[in-house]
Amino acid sequence: MVIIMKINKMLLIIIILFIAVTMSSCNKSEQLTEPIVEIRIMYPLTDSESFVNLLPGTLVQTYQEIFSNFHKLNPLIKVSFDYNYNYLSKGSFKNLLESNASPDIVYISPPTAFNVKGLLLDLLPLQQSSGAEEIDINQKILDSVMSDGNLLILPFSAMPNAVLYDKALFDAANIPYPQNDWTWEKFREISNKLKLNSSPLFYQPSSLDYLMAGTEKGMLSPNGETTVGYLDSPEAVRTIQWLNGYHRDLNVLTVVPGRTCIGLCISYFGEEDSSTHAINKDTFGVAPMPHFEDGKRNSTILFSGFGISSKSKHPEAAWKFIQYLTLAKNEDSVKFGKHFLTTSKSIAEATGQNTDPIKSIYMDELNYAVKSSFEINPLFNLAWMENNFILSNGLFTDLLTTEDKDIPAKLHKLALAVDQEMKRLKQAEDQQTESTSP
């Protein structure tokens, strides 16, 4: 009887093992017969040759290695580049994302370079449904790129400003190096002591943008529709008056396009091929962006990001790759993160960006991120830059030689001109979209 029971027990074990092996084989067979999902990433280039020529060679190689490694870990997902669109044509960009030929993942720098409402998916539901942890990025960064509560772009690369200074110049003038929490008033005092012959604060709209950041009153309304009440606000008036006084102190009363600063500069941290990756810490120092004594410490920052097209047939797979590349700490994401200033806290720690004497200063600026006025509405940026309309007619540059009492009226005139130009650009954009629609 005992022998029979042992035989029955062995038979039962054999049957269970047979069923397990059979089921495993079936699963593998099903997996092998499932179609491979192809995810395409759209880059702002027209072809593969342009991609290789524009991006640093090591970054191209990094992308290719990551695609391969991701596919090994996820055999049913294949990632590739898609170059075929005109990045500078707003109508072409919109039409492509609305078409059935739309790529899955879109690279945009900065995130609001285009009006992407309705063209890209909100990434928050994808992140939540994937069962992943909270997005490992400072909430102030996410807030600065949100659109109506939706996260349309995941900002993975940051380009913050900081103050770059020549240590020898400071040593010769016996001035302590600026550091930690300091003010624009102190910046002005140091500039006068250094007897600079050019202004580190270029007389241009971007300077007004980051100077006004601490006032919490931008140059453009939060909905991006008007500059009236913002560009001509009391905060803007006081900021221009201060900027004019700063230039008068240095006796720099003309606007010279294309010049460079010497000894003391506002410098942003760019991607791998930019000069900030080669700063000699023995010669130059980096200090945080100042703020006004009666203002908050805020920093306008540009970001590069990935979004997922609303036309993507595989949004979950696209999100899985974005998460693997930019958020999940792994060998590939760390390798990728070394090419720029990463926004992910864990990847920043893994790459040593939080402790690097230069990069850590730029990294700290991310804690004070606020949305730039140029990021609210792409047409606002174009109103200044396209054909230099606002700049060439002197409405902004003439402010430098305007008396303080006349600044309010001049700024109001400027605000009306910018609004008119934004309206004209919107009409031209609508007409282009209609003409290129199928």
Shape: globular
* Class by alpha and beta content: alpha/beta
Mean pLDDT: 82
Computed CA radius of gyration, to the nearest angstrom: 27 Å
Written account of the structure:
The protein is α/β, with parallel strands linked by helices. It contains 18 helices and eleven strands. Helix 12 crosses helix 13 (345-351) and helix 16 crosses helix 18. It is globular. The chain starts with a helix and ends with a helix. Mean pLDDT is 82; it is low at 1-7, 11-22, 25-32 and 46-54.
SSE map:
Blueprint: H1 2-33, E1 37-42, H2 48-54, H3 57-73, E2 77-82, H4 90-98, E3 105-108, H5 123-129, H6 139-145, E4 154-159, E5 161-166, H7 167-172, H8 184-194, H9 205-212, H10 234-249, E6 264-268, E7 284-287, E8 299-300, E9 302-308, H11 315-326, H12 331-337, E10 341-342, H13 345-351, H14 359-365, E11 369-370, H15 373-376, H16 378-385, H17 389-392, H18 407-436
Parallel strand pairs: 1-2, 1-3, 8-11
Antiparallel strand pairs: 3-9, 4-9, 4-10, 5-6, 5-7
Helix pairs in contact: 3-12, 4-18, 12-13, 16-18
